[in-house]
Specification:
single chain, 220 residues, Methyltransferase, Methionine Synthase (B12-binding Domains), Chain A, domain 1, Rossmann fold
Length: 220
């Protein structure tokens, strides 16, 4: 087989994995991942192309209203599964540590949908995400971040009355001498970039996709 033909076949395999993920076809995605490995394609190429392109395509479909939160959750789960298959075939000395994010809705706030969507899209982008749920106290968030050696803490608030708890996490980190250890990103309905700057947050996302781009900017 000449090199041109080999390259064409590899591109088709990478594209087939991307399409299978976008169409949420688990069997086809798993089969494509195994074929990529059998063909000797660098698994990192599949992660950086097929999975990243799939995430971008799904994000565009969500923005256009063609996909909904339930679809994003399924896509995120499938991406996790396929990434695991591929990562098992990367030599340990070449496997980059996955950036870890602890995410929570702050104390006093029980809204979950926006935070859940951010978690799904972050996972789809390749981040390791620990979702602590809603109404989580600052001390518990910081404890978890230390426990999992997180790179970032992401804080959601959907109520103006609970926004001060985003600041509380930042202040608590500073008082504990831990502020430099974690990037802090905030978001939520009433939250603005000006507020993020005012309270000393490192980043802000007005929606799940902007938050993910912000995380990439801050951590990669």
């Amino acid at each position: 087989m000449n090199q041109a033909k080999r390259n064409e076949d590899q591109e088709q395999l990478l594209e087939s994995l991307k399409v299978a993920i976008v169409e949420i076809d688990g069997d086809r995605a798993r089969e494509a991942a195994q074929k990529i490995i059998a063909a000797g394609i660098d698994p990192r190429k599949a992660i950086n192309y097929s999975i990243k392109e799939a995430a971008d395509t799904v994000g565009q479909k969500f923005d256009c209203g063609d996909l909904f939160l339930a679809h994003l959750v399924m896509v995120g789960d499938l991406m996790d599964e396929v990434s695991t298959i591929l990562e098992k075939n990367i030599p340990s000395d070449q496997l980059q540590r996955k950036r870890v994010i602890v995410i929570a809705t702050v104390q006093g706030d029980v809204h979950s949908v926006g935070k859940n969507l951010v978690a799904v899209v972050l996972r789809a982008a390749g981040f390791g995400v620990h979702d602590m749920g809603v109404d989580v106290a600052s001390s518990l968030i910081i404890q978890k971040a230390k426990e999992v050696k997180a790179d970032m803490i992401a804080l959601s608030s959907l109520l103006t009355t609970t926004m001060p708890y985003q600041k509380e996490v930042i202040d608590d980190l500073a008082s504990m001498g831990l502020r430099s250890q974690f990037k802090v990103m905030i978001g939520g309905g009433p939250v603005t970039r000006d507020y993020a700057n005012k309270i000393g947050a490192d980043g802000y996302g007005k929606d799940a996709f902007e938050a993910t781009e912000e995380a990439k900017r801050l951590l990669t």
